[in-house]
Structure formats: C-alpha cells, structure tokens
Amino acid sequence: MFATRRIQHCRVCGARTEYRVPPDDNRERATCTACGEIHYENPLNVVGTVPFWGDQVLLCKRNIEPRRGLWTLPAGFMELGESVAEGALRETVEEAGAQVELLQLFTVLNVARVGQVHLFYTARMHNTTLAPGPETMEARLFRQDEIPWDQLAFRTVRQTLEHFFADRQRGHFGVHVADIA
Amino acid sequence: MFATRRIQHCRVCGARTEYRVPPDDNRERATCTACGEIHYENPLNVVGTVPFWGDQVLLCKRNIEPRRGLWTLPAGFMELGESVAEGALRETVEEAGAQVELLQLFTVLNVARVGQVHLFYTARMHNTTLAPGPETMEARLFRQDEIPWDQLAFRTVRQTLEHFFADRQRGHFGVHVADIA
C-alpha cells in the first residue's frame, strides 16, 4: 500500500497530528491538534524515458533498492520546479549518463496501489556514450530479442517496453494510458 | 512559487528540520535534526475533465479561493488510491454533479512554477442534469462563442478549451502536452 497515515507530527509547529475529516472535505487528513494545519498526501509522478539507438533500447541495472540488480528504464521521482519532460531527461542523465533528445510522451501508467503515476517519453540517443551514476550498476543497449523480460524491475517498465516494440513494428508511436493493478 | 521550504518540523518525531543535501542526493531536503528522517517535496497532479454536451462545454463558477467567481473546468488535486481518470471523474461529480463518460486523456500541462501537472480528459455528458457541490457557485453549459474567455480561472483551463475547440473543428482529438510559463 502507499505510505499514508505516516504523518504523526505537524510540519509547522511539531505538535501531534490526528487523522480527521476536515470541514468541507470527505477524507481523513493528518490535522495538527495544536495549530490546526492540515497535511495533504497525494500521488507522486515517476518520470523516465525509453532511450533508443537504432533497433536497440537502453536499460539500467539498478544499484539501489527496491529491485536492486534488476533492469529498468531510466526513471525517478519528478522534482519541484521541473516539467515531466525535464524530469525524464534529468533521470536519463543521472542514471545512465546518456545524451538523448526527447521525442514524445509515450506512456501514462497509473499505479494507484502505491500512489504513483509513471510517465515515459521516447528518447533518441545522440550517441552510445554512457556514464552510469551511483544508482546504476551497469547501463547497456539491448535488441528486442535480448531484453531480460524476466529480470525487469517494474511492471511499468515491462509495459512501456512492450508498447515501444509494438508501436515500432506498426510504424507509429501513440500515447498509451493504462492502469497497473 | 511552489510552496517549498515549509517543512519546519519532522513528521515522525516532531523535532526541528533543516534543509540539507542528503548523501547521494543533489538537492536540499528538509532533514530531521533528531531522527534524520528526510522529507521529500514533489509536484502534485491536478486532474479534471472537459465535459461536453452536443456543441456545448460545461464550466463551473468557483466558490472557493483562489480565483473565486471565475470560471473553470471541473478539476482538483489527485488523491491517493485513484488513477488520473478516477480522480478526473470524481472531481466532475463533486464540483458539477455531472454524469459523464470519460473518453481520452486530452491535455498534460506542466505548471512548473507552482509545482503542478494538470491532466484533463474529454468527457461525454450522459444528460444535462447538474448538481454543483459547495466549491461551485454555478455550473452551466456554454457554446464556443459564449465562453467567458476573460473570466477563466486558470491558464490550463484556457489552453485545454482552446485545444478542445480546435480539435473538434478538425474532427480529431489528440493528446496535447505543453508547458505553462
């Protein structure tokens, strides 16, 4: 489950919070018992890319938990002050050191169970120079028949890769919206 | 600007926080001076719909700040446990009491300045029954030439309406991704 009900103290004054339904609301929110501050908890965006070079796609072997040692597309939590595209590009540089040009928003995948939305862009690699960051053990290019399908870190990565190869085959890249159960 | 640097106390233990760059990170995060908990602050999704009935679009006159008295499409903050579509549908019911069928993801608009992403679905209304909730003064249908362009609450609403009427004229609805400066 997503990490809700974790707010035990008020961010403004430090007093204890209680989960209550505020006036004009219909959900319980962590509410400060001293100053009344209401603390909302909302879904997070995970933003990334499908970097490709010819008929190959770039994957990164995770060096951090969760799913350490499994393969992923470069992706991470969107930060304040950036767009989805800027976040996706930043993660591609940080995790793989790849130089890419973002092409289009490609998948929007709801993972409601963990309170996340995963958004991936297609990204054309400018060259094959890679410089994986500390979160990545190894970054390398895979042809479709080389993809380690049974060693992928996340279902959103699997589904994004499946759409990528299907769309490439039919010669047209769409925007794919889906829910991950 | 987006509301960052507002976390003054730790949500876990209530002690003071300080903004510091954690190990293996490159941004300042509110970090507890007692227990070390790191508090991340990330963008929020605002999800809504363009409800239409024949050649008319449904707008709501806001009964809450900000922009009280101005017109908006039904939209609000995405909640934990729901998908983008579920949130968009929920807001349409809460703010307008409209019965709709969601058709497709239509706009994805980055508002990086305030740390938000606005996502709108097109939505076919089942009927013209409306039952505005407490956040709405009035809900009504507008033909294109009746839209109160100078009394719209948000630029994302304006841009979504502009795309809607343009796409309707060309007879094809796409997915529009843009940055709002």
Walkthrough of the structure:
Two copies of one chain form a homodimer. By secondary structure, chain A is of the alpha+beta class. In chain A, strand 5 and strand 6 (71-72) form a beta hairpin. The radius of gyration of chain A is 19 Å and the shape is elongated. The model of chain A has no long low-confidence stretch (mean pLDDT 96). The termini of chain A are close together. In chain A, the strands form two sheets. In chain A, strands 4, 5, 6, 7, 8, 9, 10 and 11 form an eight-stranded mixed sheet that branches. Chain A has a three-stranded antiparallel sheet with strand order 1-2-3, with no helix packed on it. The first copy, chain A, is 16% helix and 36% strand. The A-B interface holds A 2, 4, 6-16, 24, 27, 39-45, 77-86, 104-105, 108, 110, 112, 115, 117, 119, 134-135, 175, 177, 179 and B 2, 4, 6-16, 24, 27, 39-45, 77-86, 104-105, 108, 110, 112, 115, 117, 119, 134-135, 175, 177, 179.
Based on secondary structure, the structural category of chain A is: alpha+beta
Number of strands of chain A: 11
Relative helix content of chain A: 10-25%
Beta-strand percentage range of chain A: 35-45%
Radius of gyration of chain A: 19 Å
Most extensive interface between two protein chains, with residue counts: A-B, 45 and 45 residues
Largest sheet of chain A: 8 strands, mixed
Summarize the structure.
2 copies of one chain form a homodimer. Chain A has 181 residues and is an alpha+beta fold.
